[in-house]
Structure formats: structure tokens, C-alpha cells
Amino acid sequence: MSKVVTPRWGWALTGSGHFFNECLEMARDLEHIDLFVSKAAAEVMRMYKQKLDMPRSARIFDDKAASSPQVGYFYHGVYHTLIVGPASSNSVAKFVYGISDNLATNVFAQAGKCRVPTIVFACDTAPELETRAPDGMVKVYPRKIDLENVAKLKDFEATRVAESLAELEGFIAKRRSELVPR
């Protein structure tokens, strides 16, 4: 890996398969990115037969320690933005209720505590939607609690919640434009 450049993009992967491949492609397009791979995301990567072919400037952090020591980078201004995508309903619920028990939930919490702008691509955003399973597209019907948690997350400070790939791309483009030196 190449020398660390700061500030960087942070991108956390959770255990959602909802447009997982597309999210990974978007992450690959960002320069100076750190990828936070939760244990659940590692399982999804195997199911979707994905490899972490990231740019040379990327760093990859796996969920191997209970305390997620990598979150310390947030205290030192290493990140200008955190993206969580796709975000499972489990992760969104933990975000909303302040539970930080894995790498993805820990980086989300620390980003908030360090006032790092965050973009979350939530998977359960409508009463009925189509998502890609490892063997093709399927219909899912998010529960009322899942939809309520997404709505609550939208009220978090410095947090944007994307409900589609197009919206995620738009939020990333907007954040890029905010980072351009004037």
C-alpha cells in the first residue's frame, strides 16, 4: 500500500447484500480511501464472490478486534467523510440506538463524535423493494421498525441517508464538490 494521505474517505461495509457490488464499485472509484470491512460484510463478499481489488492508495481494515482500534484515526482528522453502504437494517438500528459492537457501528459512532460528515446507504427504505441476492433479484418487504429506524437516522446531525444508488452517487458527488479547495 502507498503512503497514507489525509484527509481520506472512510467506507464501511456491513452485512447487507443490497447493491453490494455497486457500492464496492463506487468505493473503488474514490481516491485515498480506507475500507472498513465488518465480519458480516466479509461473509457477504464471499456469497457475492467479490474481491477487494482497491486502488493502491486504499487501506483495508478487517473486523478482527473487539474494540475496533482503527476508530482512533477519526480522532486525528484522518477522515473528511464516512460512507456506510450498503447499510443493513441491523446496522441502521444499532446506529439509531447508539450500539457500537462491531467495526461498522464503531466507525459510525466515532465519525459522529468527531463531527465527520457521514453518508449512509440504507437498504430498507420502502415498504416493498427489489434487491439483488447472490442468485438474482428478489422482492423484500422491510418491517415497520426498519422503516422507522431509517426515518430516525435521517434526523442525525451531519448524516445524509441515501435511499437509492442514484441518491448515493449524488451525495458522494456533492461531498466531492464541498471538498474542492476554493
Give a structural overview.
This protein is of the alpha/beta class. It has a single domain (8-179), classed as Rossmann fold (3-Layer(aba) Sandwich), CATH 3.40.50. The two termini are 30 Å apart. The protein has 7 helices and 8 strands. The chain is globular, with a radius of gyration of 15 Å. The relative contact order is 0.18. It has helices at 20-28, 39-47, 72-75, 89-97, 103-113, 144-153, 165-179, and strands at 8-13, 33-37, 59-62, 79-87, 118-122, 129-133, 136-140, 159-162.
- The CATH superfamily title: Flavin prenyltransferase-like
Tally of domains: 1
How would you sum up the major sheet? 6 strands, parallel
Low-confidence stretches: none
Helix percentage: 25-40%
Q: Output the number of helix runs.
A: 7
* Rg measurement, Å: 15 Å
Summary?
The protein is of the alpha/beta class and 182 residues long.
What's the helix and strand layout?
Blueprint: E1 8-13, H1 20-28, E2 33-37, H2 39-47, E3 59-62, H3 72-75, E4 79-87, H4 89-97, H5 103-113, E5 118-122, E6 129-133, E7 136-140, H6 144-153, E8 159-162, H7 165-179
Parallel strand pairs: 1-2, 1-4, 2-3, 4-5, 5-8
Antiparallel strand pairs: 6-7
Helix pairs in contact: 4-6
Q: What attributes does this structure have?
A:
two-stranded antiparallel ribbon; Rossmann fold; alpha/beta; six-stranded parallel β-sheet
